[in-house]
Amino acid sequence: MQFDFRFGPERPVSPDENWLTVGAQRVRFHFIRHRRARRYILRLRPDGSARVTIPRGGSTAEASRFVHKNIPWLQQQLLRQAVQPARSRGWQLGTKILFRGEPVLLEPAPNGEPGLIRFATETIAISGSETDLRPVVERHLWRLAARELRARVLELAAPHQIRVQRVTVRNQRSRWGS
Q1: 17 contacts 73 by C-beta, under 8 angstroms
Q2: Which of 104, 114, 116, 145 could bridge across to 120 with cysteines, CB 3.0–4.6 Å?
Q3: What digits encode the pLDDT tens for the residues 67-97?
Q4: What CA–CA distance (Å, rounded) separates 51 from 105?
């Protein structure tokens, strides 16, 4: 167990202490304390900086040693990040999305009505000022999933005489496997 005794203000970290040369690049490090973390974690952020999570009872000095020990991994991640093409997260007309396991195109409505887009069998109304269609399409897909999933679950539960109280659709990006 480690104890930190502080008898005054914490020593400010100079900007040079948060930078490290990795290969030919200079990388900024952000040391973040997390009370529920159980180990040191090193992650490369999309902007090229690195985040070092310090667990409960950990020290910045130990985090720094952890970073130095993992420089080869960090170099590999920086190379991987440099090779990947920059992706646009926005969706415009002509973007391919997956719908029911098949790639489909976002396209204007077939009759040319302004303010309508279409993909597969679905048609969505949009405002004329929408430059990024992703939020509108995702909202439509969430509603569609909630409606169709509820009907399908009730259909599967009926022959087994199972009473379904509630069906919810959630974003499980952070709680997968729960």
Answers
A1: no
A2: 104
A3: 999 999 999 998 898 888 766 678 888 899 9
A4: 37
29's enclosing H/E stretch is: strand 25-33
Residue with structure tokens 């920086």?
78
Q: What is the pTM of this model?
A: 0.50
CA dihedral 59, 61, 63, 64 (to 10 degrees): 170
CA-nearest of 131, 145, 136, 138 to 88 is 131
Question: Do 49 and 30 touch, CB atoms closer than 8 A?
Answer: yes
Structure tokens at 19: 């930078």
**Strand partners for 119:** 122
Question: 147: Cβ–Cβ under 8 A, 6 or more apart, which residues?
Answer: none
**Digit-coded pLDDT (tens) for 30-79:** 999 999 999 999 999 888 899 999 999 999 999 999 999 999 999 999 88
Distance CA(118)–CA(99), nearest Å, equals 12
Show the tokens assigned to 137: 């399409």
